[in-house]
Amino acid sequence: xxxxxxxxxxxxxxxxxxxxxxxxxxxxxxxxxxxxxxxxxxxxxxxxxxxxxxxxxxxxxxxxxxxxxxxxxxxxxxxxxxxxxxxxxxxxxxxxxxxxxxxxxxxxxxxxxxxxxxxxxxxxxxxxxxxxxxxxxxxxxxxxxxxxxxxxxxxxxxxxxxxxxxxxxxxxxxxxxxxxxxxxxxxxxxxxxxxxxxxxxxxxxxxxxxxxxxxxxxxxxxxxxxxxxxxxxxxxxxxxxxxxxxxxxxxxxxxxxxxxxxxxxxxxxxxxxxxxxxxxxxxxxxxxxxxxxxxxxxxxxxxxxxxxxxxxxxxxxxxxxxxxxxxxxxxxxxxxxxxxxxxxxxxxxxxxxxxxxxxxxxxxxxxxxxxxxxxxxxxxxxxxxxxxxxxxxxxxxxxxxxxxxxxxxxxxxxxxxxxxxxxxxxxxxxxxxxxxxxxxxxxxxxxxxxxxxxxxxxxxxxxxxxxxxxxxxxxxxxxxxxxxxxxxxxxxxxxxxxxxxxxxxxxxxxxxxxxxxxxxxxxxxxxxxxxxxxxxxxxxxxxxxxxxxxxxxxxxxxxxxxxxxxxxxxxxxxxxxxxxxxxxxxxxxxxxxxxxxx
Length: 598
Fold this sequence. Notes:
- There is one protein chain.
- By secondary structure, the chain is an alpha/beta fold.
- It has a domain at 9-104.
- It contains 22 helices and 15 strands.
- The chain has helices at residues 5-45, 55-60, 62-65, 71-104, 125-135, 182-192, 209-218, 249-263, 272-290, 297-303, 309-316, 320-330, 334-347, 354-357, 371-374, 391-413, 429-432, 438-441, 459-477, 490-500, 531-535, 565-587, and strands at 151-157, 163-167, 172-175, 198-202, 223-226, 238-239, 367-368, 380-384, 422-427, 450-456, 480-483, 502-513, 516-527, 541-546, 552-555.
- The chain has an eleven-stranded mixed β-sheet with strand order 2-1-15-14-11-3-10-9-4-8-5, sandwiched between helices.
- The N and C termini lie far apart (106 Å).
């Protein structure tokens, strides 16, 4: 259908108006530049007095303003020079505009509806410093407080220089895919700047948090490395007694629970064989702890159920009810007893490996690691285990658990909180640090000055270890949640999108009628960040959810872009080279492997 004549005339008017604006945008500066260029040329060539200010005349008829200037001088002064200057200004403006769009229109641009710095004021420098003074008596009267003493740096509010920190009463969960910055931007900077003791669990060593931080942490305290599966090929310079806290039924049960969690997913831990095997382990751990025996004696008792030694020990220490339970299992139907004992043997099978067992049994001339001393120091504990390490990862989880429990006890003795606080970076927690009741611990660790940061690759990974209810509980109890790039779970991405919320978007529509063109503006609700946008988060950015605040987009701060990175890189390279040298030395054949030549 042909447009009405009135609509056509309106469109023509719009075009004429735009052309007029364009002509003015070019003509006004060009005519002024022409007059200025003519004046400069006349002055430079000493060609008579200057002309009056008539920019239009200078552009159209310059010879009338400067009659004494030659044709070449007029051409250069009022045409070439103004044109070149205007072109240079246009190019400069275009470059500045492009740069501005590049920094505010790409990943650096604050997304409309996401938190501004005023929305997350409690995580900004002033508030976080004031909070640190109130939480830490040692800082109460300090004139100046270093940023590292106030909280853990999460990153910068996107597109700004505002640093976002979690305080030393927060507990955090970070869900970040591999190579999304979880180690370089979260774990390593947190460890390097921690004011108190640090606990790190990991399944990697070379080129990871272990090598990047071990030299720096050695400068502020002792470094302890528990490496039963020789990930870093660390020399055994410590041993830890897992039975030290197993002298009560609860303590022995917790230790057995770590072996259960390391071997069986949360969905299978409630069946008969799993519970029965865990119960036998807890009873035998209790007997070994009461008699101050090494944990390896438990494997001997598991191999020979008829051995009455654990029964006698339990009775001698007035644990008669536990002894009766153990006796009932031993004297029960053989097929049931054998199944229970075999289940327990499988859970604790790692203790049969003498290399692994050496880390948890008394060693001559090797220092004992004592959690109660560690939590009052500025030492660092590295707990290393392979994915699916079974009983070996159970020892890692048990050691981490014992440290956090010792920290809780020390905090209670110190008036309620640790000062300085203890940082617990539980990297790859779903693989190497399966503490069954970690979601429950989250409810009170922060208030004790114990700051856990549990790092997972996905939400489902946590559900597999702690069940749906357990992971939901940990998520809810976390006062800080960090979400990095690589979220491929559509349900979780949609959940995050709903948590971020909606905002009003202005929509403009244009219609044509006989009376002309009309424009209307309306508002509609739209997701601030859709699920597909969350999935496509670029590397180097992360979402941060803090209790009671709007979701914020962060620019991560990898350690290798910070001051002192060259020195840290060199130290990390040396530590990685040391791992390689130790690995090669262990793999090299020894003379005794070949015998004596004939």
